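STRUCTURE:
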């Protein structure tokens, strides 16, 4: 079963295909022209906006995710602004570390909201996955991307950037949300 995955990021496409390997699902990129304005107030809103844009271009079943890092001591920031919290990725990491410099409670979680639309643009399913942990004081690891080097996974003692792709794909917020999408499609007899 082919599903359009609403992203322009080939790395993210590889990641979701690796997570669902063996499920019977193959994700593909949306057609040219996919460039939605993510102006929603929540992860759910932005996920729906992206799914709708991919669906309108492809007229195929479409799945979108919107994800980010939520830091408890920062009232959930950067949240939906995770991708545009500062200039470069290093700037984003430095900004978080600076904001938490004298903070004891460093608990945080990654969240990923997914929205699945049928070929006619009707919402079939929406869900969220989370991965809990805390923000460490300095970056560690070279794998992954985004905030992975400063996010230590709860109960693991290592950052997401210190995990192999295979390990991360078992426990990540995106993996947790995708598992629910696969279960939904299976339950509905669509796989």
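SEQUENCE:
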């Amino acid at each position: 079963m082919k599903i359009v995955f609403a992203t322009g990021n080939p790395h993210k496409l590889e990641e979701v295909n690796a997570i669902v390997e063996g499920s019977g699902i193959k994700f593909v990129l949306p057609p040219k022209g996919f460039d939605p304005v993510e102006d929603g107030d929540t992860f759910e809103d932005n996920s729906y906006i992206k799914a709708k844009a991919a669906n309108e271009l492809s007229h195929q079943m479409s799945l979108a995710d919107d994800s980010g890092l939520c830091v408890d001591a920062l009232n959930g920031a950067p949240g939906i602004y995770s991708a545009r919290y500062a200039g470069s990725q290093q700037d984003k990491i430095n900004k978080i570390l600076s904001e938490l410099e004298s903070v004891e409670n460093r608990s945080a979680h990654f969240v990923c909201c997914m929205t699945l639309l049928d070929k006619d643009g009707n919402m079939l399913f929406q869900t969220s996955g989370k991965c809990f942990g805390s923000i460490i004081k300095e970056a560690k690891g070279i794998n992954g991307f985004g905030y992975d080097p400063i996010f230590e996974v709860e109960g693991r003692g290592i950052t997401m950037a210190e995990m192999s792709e295979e390990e991360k794909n078992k426990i990540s917020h995106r993996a947790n949300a995708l598992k629910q999408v696969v279960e939904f499609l299976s339950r509905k007899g669509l796989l």
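REMARK: The helical segments are 10-19, 43-58, 89-99, 165-171, 173-187.
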